[in-house]
Amino acid sequence: MYNYIFARSFKKREQKQLKFKWMALLCFSLIALSLCAMFKPYLGPLPAAYFCEINNDIRIDGSSATVFIASSLADQTEWIIRPYARKYDHVAMKRVNEWSVKSAASLLQCNQNHSVPAILFSNGGYAGNIFHDFSDIIIPLYINSRQFNGQVQFVITNKQSWWINKYQNILKKLSRYDIIDIDNQDDIHCFPRGIIGLKRHDRELNINSSESPYSIKDFRQFIRSSYSLQKPAAIRLRDGEKKKPRLLIVSRKRTRAFTNAEEIAQMGRRLGFNVVVAEANGNLSRFAETVNSCDVFLAVHGTAMTNMIFLPENAVFIQVVPFGGFAWLARTDYEEPAKAMKLRYLEYKIKLDESTLIQQYPLDHQVIRDPSSIGKQGWNAFRSVYMVQQNVKVDLNRFRSTLLKALELLHQ
Asked: Glycosyltransferase 61 catalytic domain: from which residue to which, for each copy (predicted)?
């Protein structure tokens, strides 16, 4: 999944080589994507892609997982698309149905005609992990569909009904039509144009406004509208006022949990916070309301931090970074997106004595002594140790200054 994230653990020469390889792959992918978008359908076979925009009539045959395009060319052209946005991740792509895009002089007879464009995307990959739900599917879906103002038909492959139910507030806001489960269709669906796959920008949980008429600010406003969230901005504290800012402590039951969450809550109350402790599971709409009602969001690094999307503007976002080489992940997955969302970002890096790993491994074990050596073994090795086995007991005396800084930011 994330084998390349451990570049920071390598020597500088190795980092440069790795960077060069990924830049070359990115350039090749962009060239292939440009060809697909610009010269369709007048090109020969392409390598597997993840996105293609077609401005001609298309016919979608779910039984053969094929999109047909009319062409005057005698020779049929074809290329393969896996319609999921995390294009470099081979593990994710293995969980995504493969689709063919073919041009042909004669097309199949239509069984169902649609007057609006289609967007075909996959519900496979890492769907079900809220970080990937937003970064790989929902934000790309917003980027690609918002232009149609609801007049677009979603066509889904690898459908998971529970996923659609979970995010129905968003999906119904983007499209006025019931989603077509194309894998279970025998009919030939015809559309005036279509987008096959989803285009994703180069950073997690973000929108590059130089590539889109929309911004991450637009997306957050859209999300507030989708869930009818009432709080547009965090509280602004003034000296002498008795208002209490609301602090949300995100609890976890299994991994990377606060083992002293109640002590943190008690300290927060003494400092003047109205404290809420909640777990990010169950009903998404209710949790979105809880997050939106708060001024400070505190959590250990993990997928639950994705819920920062629901925070009001200028809220304080505190990421607790566990022990063991999390710097790259912490920055890329949450620090950079939080700052792009105009949240005030704070970070608390735990020390070894705040990690429960110290109770499981001797001090001379490589897990404790050399986390980079575990990282070099790959994502699964890193995850099984530092993400699955680790919980956090925050040093209250040391963490107190972070909460005081949050209060200071709310005064600005």
From this structure: 214-318
Length of the chain in terms of residues written: 412
Structure tokens at 73: 């060319």
**Which DSSP string corresponds to 24-86?**
HHHHHHHHHHHHHHHHTTSS-----BSEEEE-S-EEEETTTTEEEEE---SS--EEEE---S-
C-alpha to C-alpha distance for 188 and 64, rounded to whole angstroms? 10
How far out from the chain centre does Cα 362 lie? 36
The 3 state secondary structure assigned to 167-190 is CHHHHHHHECCCCEEHHHCCCEEE
Delineate the domains of the chain, giving CATH numbers in brackets: 12-200 (no CATH), 246-410 (3.40.50)
Q: What percent of the chain has pLDDT over 70?
A: 87
Collapsing DSSP states into helix, strand and coil, what is residue 285?
helix
pLDDT class of 395 with cuts at 50, 70, 90: very high
Whole-number Cα distances in Å, 147 to 51, 144, 174: 17, 7, 9
C-beta of residue 87 within 8 angstroms of C-beta of residue 121 = no
Directed axis angle between helix 396-410 and helix 261-271, to 10°? 40
Structure tokens at 34: 């440009």
DSSP state, residue 272: T
* Cα angle value 377/382/385 (rounded, 5°): 125
Looking at the DSSP bridge assignments, the partners of residue 78 are 102
> Under a CB-based contact definition with an 8 Å cutoff, are residues 350 and 320 in contact?
yes
3-state secondary structure at position 220: helix
Q: In this predicted model, what pLDDT tens digit does every residue of 103-139 receive, in sequence order?
A: 887 788 999 999 999 999 999 999 999 999 999 999 9
Please name which of 11, 149, 6, 3 lies closest in space to residue 89, comparing C-alpha atoms. Answer: 3
Q: Which pair of tokens denotes residue 171?
A: 């999906």
What is the pLDDT averaged over residues 354-368? 97
**CA-based end-to-end distance of the chain:** 40
Distance of alpha carbon 169 from alpha carbon 35, whole angstroms: 35
CB contact at 8 A, 152 and 180: no
Torsion of CA 328, 333, 335, 339, to 10 degrees: 140
217-265: pLDDT as tens digits: 999 999 999 999 999 999 999 988 889 999 999 999 889 999 999 999 9
Q: For residues 293-303, b (16+ Cβ closer than 10 Å) or e, as one string?
A: bbbbbbbbbbb
